[in-house]
Amino acid sequence: MINNDVLRSIRYMLDLSDIKVVEITKLADADFPIEKTDVQAFLKKEDEEGYVECSNRVLAHFLDGLVFHYRGKDESQPQRPIEKRVTNNVVLKKLRVAFQLKDVDMHQAFADAGFPISKPEMTALFRQPEHKNFRLCGDQALRNFLKGLTLRVRGNG
User: Fold this and answer.
1) pTM higher than the cut 0.85
2) How far is Cα 90 from Cα 83, in angstroms, rounded to an integer?
3) Angle of helix 56-71 relative to helix 88-98, nearest 10 degrees?
4) pLDDT tens digits for 124-144?
């Protein structure tokens, strides 16, 4: 999925203001250069004036910040490196960690969006890319997961 769409979906799901998106992003790195105007540019549609593509670096910081926002930061642990390339699989993993979702919760989110997936299919999405059973998460799967998670979080069931 396009990074801007992921950011837009999560922002809507959590009903976040532009300032809150900046605050969450800065949880991953307080010195990360992002402002409210940047967020507004990321949230515009591609054909709107002022649209700016959301980089992997920005989305990675936002997703890590989301984990810290919901789970807290363990200062005793060294900070994990920021993802260089944010794939759909990485987005799934970060959201799973941030919201402390178990397998049953993940299956429910997919099912709520009308996109049920089997246990082996889901397990394959969370494997390391080098693993023989690893499977790339397609845009449709991520879109449906975000939709199902939004229904769960916002309570529009």
Assistant:
1) yes
2) 8
3) 20
4) 999 999 999 999 999 999 999
